Amino acid sequence: MTLKELVVAYFQYPAIIAYLLLAVVGIGLWTWRPAPLLQTAASIGIAVLIYPLAWYSLHRWVLHSKWMWKHKWLAGTWKRIHYDHHQDPNHLEILFGALHTTLPTIVIATAPLGYLIGGFGGAAIATATGLLTTCFYEFCHCIQHLAYKPKNKLILMMKQRHMAHHFHDETGNFGITNYFWDRLFGTLYDRVSERSKSPTVFNLGYTPEVAETYPYVADLSGGVATGHPVERLRAKMKG
Length: 239
Ligand SMILES: [Zn+2]
Ligand SMILES: [Zn+2]
Ligand SMILES: [Zn+2]
Fold this sequence. Notes:
transmembrane helix, mainly alpha, membrane, transmembrane, fatty acid 2-hydroxylase activity, Scs7, binds zinc ion
């Protein structure tokens, strides 16, 4: 896939279209009952600032948690929103977040703060900001998983860190576009030589042994896959 094909695929993806439409709705609601200029700017600002922290926390303590696979009613969601992505990192169809989990999260992370700052208009514009930031995150994430070398140094660095999260040690580099919180919490690493290779980088700790006790994810996945995704793909194509 080329960058141009990626852009086309990106704008056709239902969740992206939904975010963009809902952002327009948010801006529309703000126009209908606007907050004063200062409160509007502050609501946008707080949404932009809180977003990387919300993402970091979710990625580290929810998506990489070891409790979601233990509950039958959460196992399917966990599989869909993160296990599958780590099992097969370059598979585009599961690259994007699932709308039923992302949408409530975006609203909860942004609307209350916007409301405190600027009432109804503040909540509307903060939510719209959260939705547009999500589009930006998803786009960067796509680029990181596309097989090409970015020319821009900043994007290249983002990509290398995220690739290390996928292929070297999943317990670091939780940010996608913003690594401030990784730096602060000590989970940032730039060189793979800084850390040893994690044996759970593709299964996130959901091993065949764990599956014996908590089989829900394995049941949904047709077993527990082991080994490198690329080798698994090759074996599948041969057989
Ligand atoms: Zn990824
Ligand atoms: Zn596919
Ligand atoms: Zn991850």
